[in-house]
Amino acid sequence: MADKSQTCSVWLGSETGILKGVSLSKKRAFNFCDMSSVSRDQEICALTWGDRQESEVLVGCVNGSVKTFSTEKGVFTETRVCGDISQGRFTGIAVTDRSLITCVESGLLKVWTEGSADTVEINVGGEVCRMRQNPSQRHRVATGGKENPLKVWDLERPDKPIFTAKNVANDWLDLRVPVWVRDVAFIPDSDRIVTCTGYHQVRVYDPSTPQRRPVLEAEFGEYPLTTLALPAGHDRVVVGNTHGQIAILDLRKGLVRGCMKGLAGSVRGLQCHPSSPLLASCGLDRFLRIHSLEDRSTVRLAPPILFSALLNVFFFSFLLKLVGSDAAGEVEEVKEEERDEVWDSMETVSEKGEKRTVEEEAEESRETAEKKEEKKKRKKAKK
Amino acid sequence: SKKCKGKKEKKKEKRAEEAEEKGPESESAETSSSTRPALPPTFSLSEIKNKQRRQLMFMKLKQEKRKQKLELRKKRRKEREALGDKAPPKEVPKTIENQRVYDETTVDPEDEEVAYDEGTDEFSAYFNKLINPKVLITTSDRPRGRTVRFCEQLATVIPNAHVYYRRGLALKRVIPQCISRDFTYLMVINEDRKVPNGMILCHLPDGPTAHFKVSSVRLRKEMKRRGKDPTEHYPEVILNNFTTRLGHSIGRLFAALFPHDPQFQGRQVATFHNQRDFIFFRFHRYIFRNEKKVGIQELGPRFTLKLRSLQKGTFDSKFGEYEWVHKRHEMDSNRRKFHL
User: Which InterPro entries match (chain B) (predicted)?
Assistant: First the structure.
């Protein structure tokens, strides 16, 4: 079990409560499930990394329990009850230094500190669809839902949100535009936030400006957008909708750059690899697909892997072996280096329309910079 | 020139042309050909401008080919008989079903996860005989005679089915009322130009909704050699060829329309046969004449269905989440790939 879990680079949660790990290098999927519980109320609705080294996975289930799964040992180590079914499903789980942040559909956001029984509770409004943590400032959290506009909360000052978005002006019939925020993401290296709505709009907000209305608004398709992912580089966003259409939108002007083919069911999870131009998607059609962002094809080295249960949530931890085969030039040296490193990557947790938490690691950028410097040094040494 | 020749000359010309293509050896056999002008070997029948002559030449060509084919077949049969037991096995002709691209989602009968999934999904209640189905059949607004008769006939085929007029009601308002009256299925037959062309099958307490395209509807009076009207007995259900995971879901959707205890005394059977992603519905009455022979009579309407989309949750085409959507340009590009 342990060796299986160590090779898994993609983790998925299914509707039946089974955590699945996929090893892309071996192109196989493994099931990890808690012995006692294989039932529909253990349905996984949220996944996140337990720590920065990506050795633990926190799994949030419909019945309100959060389980910890250790990737090194390959077993579920702990279970905590963080709520119950009456409050709704988890729409997001996040981890700060010593505490666990959970948010449920009814709007109750709780911060559970380790060691003490106190919890900080915030009511973020009703009918929350998503809660996400800012990867660079981990005490900041954004929430949004149906008729619940985007709010950014600072957990150190839980009384009022730091930023509440204002609804867009009335449309051309002078009717109020309804609000339904389905997914939120923080754009790295800036203060801006991207949201996608159930009314097929993608909006960018900038809290640093005094304007509370969206800075940019774009539309795609005719169906509700369920998930969002941010590829590396700061000008694009990938969105998926309930019809299985995945599109790459440009955030500079709000135009559609292209669409991905292949998905037949509603997109439940989208995640971009932090360094290589790969995008993974999972959905209700029970497949995990890896797409290439450059030419929008489905990358052949990872054909769609089938799962027999509906996929709710998933996230990545890419091992570099996958990426190493794409790298060109200085093959031997680069490969050796890369094999030694493990890349952290983002997680996306997509569930039946519920929460997703994305964590991006800043370490990677540091590592790439270091690698480049080393390469340059070696080149100079050769000369 | 070629155009001035008569029929017999044309035939000779044809022979000459063939002779020339065969090679110089055959020329000696037909001396007349040496006097004819040599036809260019790139001569093709379509270059003859005269329709009558062209047709004649073509007919001759076809007859020649047929003769050759028959000779070849006879030769092969003789060889096969001569070899007897040592003959190589007969080759199976390629059909589209034979050449079907292996679908990864084909369900392995021993897959535990699928078994667990099916054991706990929305239909498990029927297969455990806990709930009996109750079906509401309705149409789109203002149905025409054919659709109305189709609905009535469907109501005789499906036990415990009730037909209601639509009268312009919105489906999203109909659904909560159905749920409160304990209906388990809502079937809406859509009509276009006086002919039924679509069906929405919605499993009621928040179950999946399937949208089908209906074609080839034959009502009872259009059936040849049909039997008497179906009785009130619960029919047996046959589901053929639903192999993939999606096929399994749809198969269960159909199976849950009928009560799970068939009355064999009624000798009626409803068949849903899936072939090449088309589902053929037939309703028969059978009788066993002896152990080996069965007689069947077709009763009831017949129609074909093609799945367009399967949606999780009850009917909500705008905001619902789709489990499977038929995308023509992506899925229909390969003739040998099927999804059900």
Answer: Brix, IMP4/RPF1
Of B117, B322, B323, the CB nearest to A308: B117
- Which residues of chain A make contact with B315, given a CB cutoff of 8 A? none
Task: Give pLDDT, residue B10.
Answer: 67
Percent of chain A residues past pLDDT 70, beyond the cut: 75
Classify strands B135-139 and B161-163 as parallel, antiparallel or unpaired.
Answer: parallel
* B113 CB within 8 Å of a chain A CB: yes
In angstroms, rounded to a whole number, what is the distance separating the alpha carbons of residues A376 and A378?
Answer: 5
| Residue range B168-173: mean pLDDT, rounded | 92
Instruction: Dig out the tokens for B230 from the structure.
Output: 């179906």
Report whether pLDDT(B43) > 70. Answer: yes
Query: For residue B45, what is the DSSP state?
Result: G
| CB of B216 closer than 8 Å to CB of B303 | yes
Touching A: B residues 292-331, CB under 8 Å: 312, 318-327, 330-331
Whether residue B104 lies within 8 A of chain A, CB to CB, comes out as: yes
Give the tokens for residue A71. Answer: 């990737």
Question: Which candidate, B254, B227, B233, places its Cα nearest to that of B159?
Answer: B233
Nearest-CA distance from A126 to chain B in Å? 19
B316-333 pLDDT, tens per residue? 888 988 989 999 988 888
B-chain CB neighbours of A31 within 8 Å are 113
pTM: 0.77
Collect all residues of chain A within an 8 Å Cβ-Cβ radius of residue B107.
308
**Distance of residue B126 Cα from the nearest chain A Cα, in angstroms:** 18
Q: What is the ipTM of this complex?
A: 0.75
CB-facing half-sphere around the CA of B303: CA atoms within 13 A: 23
Q: Is the pLDDT of residue A21 over 70?
A: yes
Q: What is the mean pLDDT of residues B64-89?
A: 89
Are A359 and A316 a contacting pair, CB within 8 Å? no
Q: How many CA atoms lie within 13 A of B14 on its CB side?
A: 20
